[in-house]
Amino acid sequence: MLEYAIVKCENDQGKTSKMIRVCEQIPSIYKSLLILIYNYFHRKKDSMNTTLITTVTGPDSLGIIKSLAEATRGLGGEWISSKVMKLDGRFAALMKVIIEESKEAQLREELDRQFPELDFSYAEPRDSGGVPLTIINLEIDCKDRPGLTKDINTILSNLDLTVENMEFNRMHVSSIGEAVFNAKLALAVPEGTSSESLADEIESLSDDVRVNVV
Description:
Layout: E1 4-10, E2 16-22, H1 28-46, E3 49-59, H2 64-73, E4 78-87, E5 90-100, H3 104-114, E6 119-123, E7 133-143, H4 148-157, E8 162-173, E9 178-190, H5 195-203, E10 210-213
Antiparallel strand pairs: 1-2, 3-5, 3-6, 4-5, 7-9, 7-10, 8-9
């Protein structure tokens, strides 16, 4: 029977590490196999990954998104998904990042060091509770009026859904002498939710509101 013990010892740098001490009577081939097995599981434990949502805001500049991605990859991290919004010389980005747990703090420090002009915040991904979700894309067109975006947000907040993406645009149309409103929505809803019923809810705002499922 193979007998061994895992003991702690101090390495040359004074850090605690784990070593295997194998009984002398064990044949060398079994010693090597045992050490290989231990090292495999030890490395696997040390390299557990973590996932975090990184939010970045700040002044826009040429190549800034590429530079952020390269800084993440430089520490072995990877962007699973990302969303970027740019407006009037500013930008905001959301990145879902996966990286080794042992390197998460180092990544945060490196981003702060390389990009002092940007603001970073971090959060854990939200669990959907095991409910399968699907994405419904809607486009809204109507005449513009005060309080319209507030009314749309009120309807959405009262429904069982998550807003994945929302874009509002207003423009003046000289041919009709009025301002028109356009919105593009990406909504995460439980599977089986009717896109037509969502459209009907939003169209109930006023007679001129038109909602298309895209």
